[in-house]
Amino acid sequence: MNKIIANADDAIADISENATIMLGGFGLCGIPETSITALVRKGVKGLTCISNNAGVDEFGLGLLLKTRQIRKMISSYVGENAEFERQLLSGELEVDLVPQGTLATRIQMAGMGIPAFFTPAGYGTEIANGKEVRVFNGKHYLMEEALHADFAIVKAWKGDRYGNLVFRKTTRNFSTSMARAGNITIAEVEHLVEPGELDPDHIHVPGIYVHRIFQGGPYEKRIERRTVQLSVNR
């Protein structure tokens, strides 16, 4: 099955208003930049976006926040985006903050077909409000439900026409689980290769989970926060 799509605009063409979308990557590393830009061009609104974070101003999901296309964010870290903060404090944006491990596991469970699981993370905090609590071996656990999406959009290092994907290092974070949890999975890749070029032992997401794939780019590999340390003479 040839799953190659001509470009990002064609790949996201059927994403409609009020859709729930997972977007892979970790911070600004491995995010589907080309697809996000296509969503901005499409202008689709009312989106619920599930992502590790909300990007930064003028980059990543920050672009969709700027154009008011996101209605709700489900994330674990949102501290680098001034526009996100403004919309949250003004009541323009609905936000569901989830502990990072819980967020990753909720996505993973969706891909595995497991409807819910129990975790100690968040017990005794606001996160526990309205959730079922059980005690196992004398310890309290919250029940968390699997997290599904209409679309999962990920960026991989390499992929072939069948949708097999290979990621590099930190870019695997969230993306491999998200690719399994979307009703429709869209993959943009840095390198679109011929079948047989990928070592089967190195494939992180088998093509059975991927519905569309296209060559993305050009990519801007940003550093979210640059930290330097002055040398100390001893």
TrEMBL record:
Keywords: Transferase. It comes from the Bacteria. The keyword Secreted does not apply. Pfam families: CoA_trans (PF01144). Gene3D superfamilies: Glutaconate Coenzyme A-transferase. GO terms for molecular function: transferase activity. This is Succinyl-CoA--3-ketoacid-CoA transferase. It comes from Flavihumibacter stibioxidans.
